[in-house]
Amino acid sequence: MVATPQELYRDSSPDTSALPVRTVEEVISEAGEKVPWVIENLLARGAVTDCSGLAKKGGKTTFWCHAIASGASGEDFAGFSTTPAKYLYLTEQGNNFAEALRESGLERYPEHIKIVQFKDVPGAEWEELIMKAGVETKRLDLDALIVDTFAVFARLKGSEENDSGAVAERMRVLRLVAQTYDIAVVLIRHAGKDGTPRGSSAFEAEADICITIARPEGRHAPTVRKIAGIGRYGEWERNIQLTEGGYISLGTDDNVEFRRAVRFARAVLPDS
Question: For the whole prediction, is pTM greater than 0.85?
């Protein structure tokens, strides 16, 4: 019988039993030969993804709702391969979350997302809430957990977001749930005014994958975003655009500018 997260995390009684030592072969065999991606480069089983962007301007909730819908429909997401995964989504939003669900097309795939709204768990303490969320992912046979936003559900106040101890302790609860239930976990948080992730460096230190979403420099359509990722599985960046059919990849800034120049040249030159 697998120990519950509470037993693993909270039990402070002396334990004189032997450590659960694993061999190299056991660790490699359990991990498998390939990264267990739920969404390529963005989300992997047993790992925690830290996603940050400007409040109200970055489009973080829109981004992840479209990501879920792309996986549900069996399509790539912004150039990344996906799997038809099922998610538990903790949202701070109220009735306005319905707009994100409709615009992303998730209302066509209700079996791929279950939702917990902050208004229904306003007094829940962080550890208890996340542990229960982990249990629910197991009970409902879900693949991923999204916390949107971290600060609201973690009940961080003022400068606590810069407190490495407080942040690290909350991040470790997410890691425990990710590894115990072999699910992918996403925490969404706000960036500062300069667009860089806000808060303690413990966020990046404890996460396996760190993603930023921002408006790219230069002249771009208002629906274009620059996403960048770094972590245990490598480093990358690309521009993406939200279209009527979902997010598409535009490549790097140089790729975007080159294609714009080609379109302009074609528009002003004669057909011959």
Answer: no
